[in-house]
């Protein structure tokens, strides 16, 4: 689902105006909202009344990383994983 951004100014870390497609997963942002704005706690997050977006820094896209790992594991043997209801992933274990 693509976000629809209208009449919202977006600024890079260097305070230069950028286009919406420059926003990447994992970015830390600060929003400037108009009075009476609303934030709907859903997925994806829905925000009304945004005036400006300021990129603070580029962080890690952990959600994208975990989704890629799960897709890789599931795709290795889809017959083995058929009907699977729960998948656990321990990212703390490192293989030498």
Could you tell me how far the N terminus lies from the C terminus, measured between alpha carbons in angstroms? 38 Å
Percent of residues in beta strands?
A: 25-35%
* Alpha plus pi helix count: 1
Total DSSP E strands: 4
Radius of gyration: 18 Å
Give the rounded overall mean pLDDT. 82
Instruction: Name the strands of the widest sheet in spatial order.
Output: 2-1-4-3
Structural class: alpha+beta
Taking the sheet with the most strands, its summary is: 4 strands, mixed
Share of residues in helices: 10-25%
Low-confidence stretches: none
SSE order, one letter for each helix or strand: EEEEH
Query: What's the shape?
Result: elongated
Tell me the count of domains.
1
Description:
The mean pLDDT is 82. This protein starts with 8 loop residues before the first strand and ends in a 20-residue tail after the last helix. It has 1 helix and 4 strands; from the N terminus they run ββββα. A hairpin with a 5-residue loop joins strand 3 (27-40) and strand 4 (46-58). It has a 4-stranded mixed beta sheet, with no helix packed on it. The protein is elongated. The protein is 16% helix and 33% strand. It has one domain. The protein has 96 residues and is of the alpha+beta class.
